[in-house]
Amino acid sequence: MSEDGSLWITIDDNEAHYLKVLCDEVFGRANFIANAIWQKKYAPQNDAKWLSDSHDHLLIFAKAKTIWRPNLLPRSAEMDSLYKNIDNDQRGLWMSDNMSVKSYSAATDYPITTPSGRIVNPPASRCWAFSKEKLAELVSDNRIWFGAKGDGVPRIKRFLNEVQSGVVSKTIWLRDDVGDNQDAKKEVKKFNEISVFDTPKPERLIQKIFQLATNPNDLVLDSFAGSGTTGAVAQKMGRRWIMIELGEHCHTHIIPRLQKVIDGEDQGGISKAVNWQGGGGFRYYKLAPSLLQQDRWGNWVVNREYNAEMLAEAICKLEGFSYAPSDAHYWQHGFSTETDFIYATTQTLNAEQLQALSDEVGEGRTLLVCCSAFRAPAERFPNLTLKKIPRMVLQKCEWGHDDYSLNVENLPQAKPAVPEAVSAEPPSRKKVAADSISQGGLFDEGEA
């Protein structure tokens, strides 16, 4: 997450408070922004055993609260309609506001004489917001309203052209403003009438989040894409987006929905509010199978779903090389610099094969060789670095997950459309000597 990024999580009462504590540990309590309440249902559940739940929580955290600031929400016509100009003030529309405050100060607890001669004191346990001197300035500038007859309780005039261009969001989000589950189900039915999620999110809810947390062309990540609402709203609002979904929802919900959005056929949700006419596009990537799997004896072996090309690309990714197989040299599967290359093979390499590799690489280049085993001392080949598969992979894998195996936690953040810089110096790699010349097969039994 970028330093000015934020995290927004919708969750119900069952887990909200546990999640808050967990997020406090990850982000730090100082980076907690708010717990907004979203009214997800309108009608009460009369068959509820205890209370009818009508809301979900929206936990909001910032990567760095000292940096992150929410945007203001657009002002509505209803808000502006409260401003009048009943005294024809040259500064335009205005509304009157309470001039007393709760924080008591003897210096601002004094009587005010209205134009009609009436004496007005502050309400009980309160005082005026201004000193006598400041009040005199405001009265002289026609910024205090005493009512049409000049005998009302004094109020401060707030001019429309002086207020900020937007409004600060409240922490209670009502269905009239952001929609509810029923609205969301209607939106989903437009592209999948059979399978409707139990608790989908309406587009107006996601729109409000984006209004507060993003600007046009910002990047949005949804790790649990569901029915694809996040991508649909992001596309309509001009945000870049990444969605992740491990279920079949990609094919049954997300892709059909986004195709209608791109084609301009989806005129539901926020389409009319943002004048969406279609456009743009998206790429669809399928998660590769796990690189390693256990054989029947519990040994880690390379997944047989990986062919030689897939294995070479995966090893390049793990070792920080750019995957670029050469047509001229079979041993160039990728590179880190102009003189540093990588070669991945499922073979066991003997001394003759390693010597031939070393001779072909030459003195001016270096080669990282990843193989199932090697049968010669690594020190004999100064321009080769030897690593065993799957041992080298095991050290970089993250276990206990059935959906991925590559640890990407510490990968650097990539800037869009900018190629990674190539280091001028090859990365230093310590020579790895063979622990034993006897090693099991790289793949499960039955390999060729």
UniProtKB/TrEMBL annotation:
SUPFAM superfamilies per UniProt = S-adenosyl-L-methionine-dependent methyltransferases
Q: Where is this region: Disordered?
A: 416-448
State a single Pfam family of this protein: N6_N4_Mtase
Please list the residue ranges that the record marks as compositionally biased, kind Low complexity: 416-426
GO BP, one annotated term: methylation
Q: Cite the DNA methylase N-4/N-6 domain residue spans from the record.
A: 2-252
Molecular function in Gene Ontology: DNA binding; N-methyltransferase activity
Keywords of this entry: Methyltransferase, S-adenosyl-L-methionine, Transferase
Protein name, as recorded: Adenine specific DNA methylase Mod
Protein source organism: mine drainage metagenome
